[in-house]
Amino acid sequence: MPPSVDSAPVPPRGQRVRETITQLRQRILAGEWPVGSRIPTEPRLVEELGVGRNTVREAVRALAHAGVLECRQGSGTYVVSTDELAPVVARRLTDDRMAEVIEVRRAFEVEAARLAARRRTPEDLAALDGALAAREAAWRGGRVAEFVEADAALHTTVVAAAHNSMLAELYASIGAAMRSTVTQAMGDALTPERHVDHARLVAAIRAGDPELAAREAGAFLEPAPGA
C-alpha cells in the first residue's frame, strides 16, 4: 500500500537528538527544572517529548557532558547548572588564577556600567535601589556568605540594566568565580576596612553618566600596586 500523502517525513536521528537537546535546555532555562532538582525519568521524557528512548538518552548524555546535567546512579539525573560555560570556568578556577578572574570581572563590569548608564529604565533603577539596599542590609547583618550573595546580586542587576543579552550570559558564566573573589577578599569577617560603598555606582547610572559609571565600576577592581 503506498504511503499516505499526509505522512510527515521522519527527521534524521541526529536532528531528533539536537531538537531534544534544545527542548531540554529550554525547559531548564525556563525554570521548570531548577538547579538542584531531578529531571523526569527517561520513560516520562520519552512520553512527553514524543521521541525514542535512545534519542532521550543521547540528549541527556550530551547535556551531562556539557556540565548542565549530572547522572547519579541509583538516584536519577539532576540539573547542576543552567549555563554550559559555568562548569568550564569553575574547572579553571584555582587560587593562583584569582588575579585573572578579577581582570575578567573588571572588563565585564566596567562596560556593563557604561551601558547601564545609557540604557537603564525606571524598572532597572528600582531593581538597583533594591539590590543596593539588600547589599547594605547583608553587610550590617555581618554574615559573609549572605553578603557575598547580595553583592553578586547587585552586580548582576547592573549587568541586566545594560540590556545586552550576550554580556549577561557571559557574566553569568563567571558567577561562581566572582563569588570566590569576593569571599577571598572578605576573609572570615566583615570588617569596616573591607567595606566598599556602591552607592556612587548606582547614582552614576541613575544620572545617565556613562564615563562616571565606568570609573566607579572599575575602581572596585583596581589591581594592587605592583600587580
TrEMBL record:
Q: Which GO terms describe its molecular function?
A: DNA binding; DNA-binding transcription factor activity
Query: Signal peptide span per the entry?
Result: none
Q: Superkingdom, according to UniProt? A: Bacteria
* Keywords, in A-Z order: DNA-binding, Transcription, Transcription regulation
Name one matching Pfam family.
GntR
SUPFAM superfamilies reported in the protein's UniProt record = GntR ligand-binding domain-like, Winged helix' DNA-binding domain
Instruction: Specify whether Nucleus is a keyword of the entry.
Output: no
Domain HTH gntR-type, by residue range, is: 14-82
Mind telling me which InterPro entries this protein's record contains?
Answer: GntR_C, TF_FadR/GntR_C, Tscrpt_reg_HTH_GntR, WH-like_DNA-bd_sf, WH_DNA-bd_sf
Q: Which CDD domains match?
A: WHTH_GntR
This chain's protein is named FadR family transcriptional regulator
Query: What organism is listed for this UniProt entry?
Result: Micromonospora zingiberis
Q: Taxonomically, what lineage is the organism?
A: Bacteria, Bacillati, Actinomycetota, Actinomycetes, Micromonosporales
